[in-house]
Amino acid sequence: MVRLIVMTVMLVTTCLTSLVIVVCWHKPPIVALCFLLFFGSIELLYFSASLTKFCEGAWLPILLALFLMIIMFLWHYATIRKYEYDLHNKVSLDWLLALGPSLGIARVPGIGLVFTDLTAGIPANFSRFVTNLPAYHRILVFVCVKSVPVPHVPAAERYLVGRVGPSAHRSYRCIVRYGYRDVHQDVDSFESELVARLADFIQYDWYRSRRSSMSVEDDVSNSNESSSHRLTVIGTTGFSIQPGYESGGESVQQASVSVGFPTVQSVSDVIEMEPTVSERRVRFAIDYEPESDARSEVGVQMQEELEDLYAAQEAGIAFILGHSHVRAKQGSSVLKKLALNYGYNFLRRNCRGPDVALKVPPVSLLEVGMVYIV
């Protein structure tokens, strides 16, 4: 039985290595074919000889592996369908900007962190939240936590921050990137770090607007609306702009994430965005002059926005997460209904929730119930 397991692993490894030769190493297919025929024939010979032990007990690990594979496939399939549902049912920016006292919507003190898998647009669970509770926080941040295919993401490259709408609306988007060996921060340090990065972005954005109005920078628009369509890498030693715009799908970004980050080829590798556009990359080190800025209108507006941010932090931070329930749409096959309505929902109820994974304190948690018809 052990021999059959080992030979199966070796045979699968050989098949996958032949794909690596072509896809990753960019060798001619004939090289991969020769590798597969040479090693695969030897391993297939031993594998066929080990099949005689199948009825003597080797069926058990194969059955267990098949069971685990079905679970992983089911989880992956439902997760992808949920993401597609969010992508096609997100609400527009105009809808968010139209919310106000005229519709009975109030802005309450504090910071609301809306966690979502989307990197552009307003998630559907937030519209459901506002529908059931006609109020949202004075400072609104749409947070997207992404795992990237690199071991570590430097602290100076972890946060991508941008505006959602004009500056007066006090809404932002923040994409937080972690490598697969990075340890997620504790909630207290995450809150303070996020607020600090938002403050850095506010200073940079108003500084950019001031320089643009003085015709020092050529490639950046002067309007706050345009800044809602770009994300900026906010670090501890400066700022690097990520030009782009929001289209009907996800945000379009430039080719490079940042200098000195060669393991990630593009922002599309990191946050699953659409193909890139070619634009110039600029990096700034801010030399902030509080006395001169305070005399200008830009400096006053920046100071007001920073004061609103810190006042909201003092009022408290709420974490808004979606509590999803997946159901198969009408007309689906019996197998799909069993897999989604029972299988996936059973796994979701008995697995670690996103609030535990993100280390959200229960006292600050707001869950929004959401039914996904996929």
Automatic annotation (TrEMBL):
Transmembrane segments: 30-47, 59-78
Pfam families: K_trans, K_trans_C
Alphabetical UniProt keywords: Ion transport, Membrane, Potassium, Potassium transport, Transmembrane, Transmembrane helix, Transport
One Gene Ontology molecular-function label: potassium ion transmembrane transporter activity
Principal cellular location given in the protein's record: membrane
K+ potassium transporter integral membrane domain mapped to chain residues: 6-97
Keyword match Ion transport: yes
Residue span, K+ potassium transporter C-terminal domain: 109-372
Membrane disposition: Multi-pass membrane protein
Organism domain of life: Eukaryota
Cellular compartment(s): Cell membrane
Keyword Membrane: yes
Gene Ontology CC: plasma membrane
Family to which the UniProt record says this protein belongs: Belongs to the HAK/KUP transporter (TC 2.A.72.3) family.
Protein name: Potassium transporter
Organism: Vigna mungo
